[in-house]
Amino acid sequence: MDWDDARVFLAVYRGGTLRAAAASLQVDQATVGRRLRALEEVLDARLFLRTPRGYVPTRAGEVALSAAEAMERAADQMLRLTQGTDERVSGTVRVATSDTMARFFMMSAIQRVHEAHPDLRVVLTTSTHLSNLTRREADIAVRNVRPDNPDLISRRLARRELGVYASKRYLKQHGEPRRGTAFEGHSVIVYQRAYFGARAETLCGEPYGNARVALEVNSGLMMMEAVTRGMGVGELANYMADTTPNLVRIWPDCREFYDLWLVMHGDLHRTARVRAVADAIIAVFEQADTEQAAASKGRT
């Protein structure tokens, strides 16, 4: 099995269909099917069962998986190591983060990079999904979870605060919720349990069991939009909500904190183009903290 065959096998294994595999490899579906049949002939083994639900790996396919993944790790490591010696500030850097981080911080960092290094292309992916940096789904990630993979390096960017907010319109119509009532008589906007787990049962630690759940979202920007429109009470980061005139913070002492981390693969963090993007991200967060400290001092 060569690496090209292994890539096809892994794409089918992970995608479950020829169409999904073709999309991930950016080739046509017929090519994937032809390469898979050729691989099975070379190995003299059936790697997948074709079922109405898609391609299901056989016992031989399960055995082949570990070998194919080992080839993938070796290929990725070779790519990272060779790119790690590249001092050109050009090419492509893949960045993964959430939509709120992108809107309020990352766009400023990318703009700085573009102005300083016009030959450098940034590919930005916004999602609640944690990108796999070892598989090169991203070169840099900004996330609120510190990685435990020893191949990854991380730097704490900032500590951010969550609060409970509602629009002026909502409060005029419904009044302010009373603490200890589990938001009885009120509507709330919450995060989908599939994405945020047990946190979805409270707003900054306050249970909302007596509330009407008006909307479930999987995006910070959609949470912001719904609360701003007066659809209900929601949990928002203060860097977003405090700069929105239509929003009011309920119970200012009700808060939670979380850390933000800049994450890179250890083999890539000294690559010139990756370093340029990382430095811009760090600078934007440092500037935001400086401005926030100055604003807080001005209010005292």
From TrEMBL:
Keywords: DNA-binding, Transcription, Transcription regulation. Belongs to the LysR transcriptional regulatory family. It comes from Bordetella genomosp. 9. The keyword Translocase does not apply. This is LysR family transcriptional regulator. The keyword tRNA-binding does not apply. Residues 1-58 form the HTH lysR-type domain. GO terms for molecular function: DNA-binding transcription factor activity; sequence-specific DNA binding. It comes from the Bacteria. GO terms for biological process: DNA-templated transcription. InterPro entries: LysR-type_TF_proteobact-type, LysR_HTH_N, LysR_subst-bd, WH-like_DNA-bd_sf, WH_DNA-bd_sf.
